[in-house]
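1st attempt posting a full record on here, be nice pls
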Amino acid sequence: MSFWVRLITLIIVALVLFLGTTTAFAYLTLFERRLLARFQNRVGPNRAGPGGFFQPLADAVKLFFKEDITPTQADKVIYNLSPALAMIPAILLFAVIPFGAYLDLSWLLGQEAAVVPIQFTDINVGILYLLSVTSIGVYGITLGGWSSNNKYSMLGGIRSAAQLISYELALGLSILVAIMLTDQPAAQASAAYPSCALMWQQPAETFSSLSTCRIVESQAGWWNIFKPTGLIAFCVFWLASTAEVVRAPFDLVEAEQELVGGYNTEYSSMKFALFFMAEYIKLIAVSTIGVTLFLGGWRGPGVDVLYNAGYPNIAALVSVGYFLLKLIFFLFLSVWVRATLPRFKYNQLMDIGWKQLLPISLALVAITAVGAIVIDPYLPGLFGAAR
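the predicted structure (as tokens):
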């Protein structure tokens, strides 16, 4: 693929990703509010547009025209930068997520664009990239709480840092299980088979187990969630990621009854909106990571058949549809838990992270490693055979 064709396709994919994530954030808030209302036997927002469809737009206009207040004693530089520090890492997470297989744009850009992956880029250390970016996202919250010169904000910022450290290990180990379950690339059934080698025009052996494309490709048979240690690893990942994005019942960094609003107590107008956006975009991002690692990514019945039958664009749309369905399932779980469980106390939060999730995730890594050596030669594919 020539430089210009690659550049044009990158710009198209980047624009679609940016518009998609910002729109998804807006309508995730409506999705959550309507679901919460249903769980609590209420009607929910239904006045702005048909069925409340324009409610996110009304909320955005309201926040945009609110007065922007900066505390007199705040550290103004860091206070103003913190919302952006929380927001930017959340968007960067989407760069290595494969949302679908590939499109055929040869009718638009020539034969060189016959295979355009529905992923911004794939790197051999994609999982390390995701872990590093999720880790730096906490700086925005912590610095925002510190720079506000407010004791409630400061406590919220400190809690966010402690919470991240407590759950980062369990999250990383559950992801390590998914990496260990990643097998050799699937054999190519035909030239149109949507393998990483075909989509990125590179030899198959160049894709490591840390590549998100390779992890999805290895789930062509059984998804990781259906493998012996995959289901428990998925549960650990889901709990730890919920704590990482400070969602209920792990939302102690806000805890209105104790800390007023936590780290964002002093924020208003669009700065508050940026923190709000970052929280929801991070929720979508960790959900896409969960779909990629454990639920087969964009894979589903009929995608390979459509590619082999010569309908690449229909197959691409179907693969994106599968990914979105799994993503909605993941988000539904998050809203359901928020509507069901009360907020944990701080000692319970720490107990779950250090005394329960960490030992379980360490045991999962050990069992997967032993299973790959002892059991996999006799029952191939259960624990992943090759690295």
